[in-house]
Amino acid sequence: MSKEKFAGVKGMNDMLPADATIWQTVQQTAVGVLERYGYQEIRTPILENTKVFTRGVGEVTDIVEKEMYSFTDSMNGDQLTLRPECTSAVVRSVNEHNLLYGATQRLWYMGPMFRHERPQRGRYRQFHQLGAEALGMEGPEIDAEMIIMLARIWKELGVGDVHLELNTLGALTERQAHREALIRYFEGNQDILDEDAKRRLYTNPLRILDTKNPEMQDLVNAAPRLLDFLGDDSRQFLDRMESIVSAAGINYVINPRLVRGLDYYNHTVFEWITDKLGAQGTICGGGRYDPLIEMLGGRPAPGVGFAMGMERVIELMRECGNVPQKAQTDVYVLHHGGETQVKAMLLAEAMRDLGVRVMVHPNKGSIKSQMKKADASGACFAVFATEDELASGTVSVKALREGATVYAEQTTVALDQAADAIAKALSFRAE
Ligand code: ATP
Ligand code: MG
Question: Of 1, 44, 104, 354, which sits 20 to 30 A from 141 (CA to CA)?
Fold first, then answer.
């Protein structure tokens, strides 16, 4: 037999039980807020036809150019891609199932995304996004509502100061005029452009503004700003959104260089950034993508959405000391094996009927070693279903934790009343 011990795929992490509570807390908190705004869950497959992303994300983007896990299905030759983001997939699904005919949709999703990036803190090859899409609604009120909703999520998670950067990408004609100006500007500075920028000069010059190359920062800082090319409609869209966000008491800065990684945005773009996570400080990005639904074959309809990086939000929770602890069980049942174990298991079932979390000691063991396990489980109560106790139709209950006030000492309880009594004692604790 081979003794090889396997390692996971580079950049793809296991979520171990010790981290489950913090994941659940983040998801439950976020979804609890989303539901208060009428969002419903959607799940799409992890694989899509590659075209969904080449068209939906855009050919000249980091994601499509160098980050996608794409392959040919050896069974039938289909070109498939592990989803690098979910907006395109959600729109594909909404179009396919005609969910926007005479309706609007507010949808949320959570799941793994895949990008072939260089792994580092906060940047993985499998990571998780929790996101939402508001479809069929023209802004800017819905854009503002989404930002207000996200501020509420940060507040309820207790992650402190996460700052908001806003920008607008205007409308297509404005972007075209801006694009001409950008190309002229960068053409005049060819010597400063890096390889990526040169390649994008005529295909997607807007993306040059998103460069992380320090040697190009001065150049992009002085580049023509889309803000100066906005027409009245786009200006008003931005003003109205800003005024609602301000009225809700949310601070923000306008960052004219914020363009974001995906191609299909117009009007609003935003990012939420923390300075507690170093270089990978953007925990959430989003914006409006009115052209996308039609680009993916649907009837024209507007859309706006966001995606937060779960790993980054969880890391931020840790940085803030928000690490909720949850014991594995409320009650641990000890026994002497044989018939006592069967009685213990049946008593546990009676407790579970009442909603109590119970573990019965597996197999045999001395009461002393079982007590060690009971203690390590974090249970409030140990229940002894021993030969002697059961012979007299009772079990005894011992409080293991401070705060389990009802059974301060070891107490004997009739077997047929034990489940009720313990459930009551636990709800007494919760009050
Ligand atoms: P970046 O500029 O950091 O590469 P991006 O623009 O590619 O980000 P989006 O596509 O907007 O990111 O994804 C939304 C969010 O998902 C990001 O703000 C981030 O929190 C998270 N995210 C993106 N890529 C990764 C990754 N490789 N690992 C972990 N989280 C990620
Ligand atoms: Mg990226």
Answer: 44
In short, whether 260's Cβ falls inside 6 Å of ligand 1 is yes
Ligand 1 atom closest to Cα of residue 282: 18
pTM for this prediction: 0.92
User: For position 115, what pLDDT does the model report?
Assistant: 98
At 215, which amino acid appears? Answer: E
pLDDT digits (tens, 9 = 90+) for 247-295: 999 999 999 888 876 667 899 999 999 999 999 999 999 999 999 999 9
Long-range contacts of 176-179 (CB under 8 A, 24+ apart): 177/229, 178/206, 178/224, 178/225, 178/226, 178/229, 179/205, 179/206
Is 390 a residue whose pLDDT tops 90? yes
d(CA 54, CA 60): 9
Mutate to test the pocket of ligand 1, among 82, 123, 263 (most ligand atoms within 8 A of CB): 123
Report yes or no: 323 and 317 within 8 Å, Cβ to Cβ.
yes
Q: Which residues contact 191 (CB under 8 A, 6 or more apart)?
A: none
Q: Tell me the pLDDT band of 209, cut-offs 50, 70 and 90.
A: confident
Q: Are 272 and 154 in contact (CB under 8 A)?
A: yes
What does the block give as tokens for 420?
A: 């009720």
Ligand 1 near 307 CB (within 6 A): yes
Average pLDDT for the chain: 93
Handedness of CA 417, 418, 424, 428 (dihedral sign): positive
> pLDDT per residue over 112-126, tens digit each?
999 999 999 999 999
Specify whether the CB–CB gap between 94 and 43 falls below 8 A: no
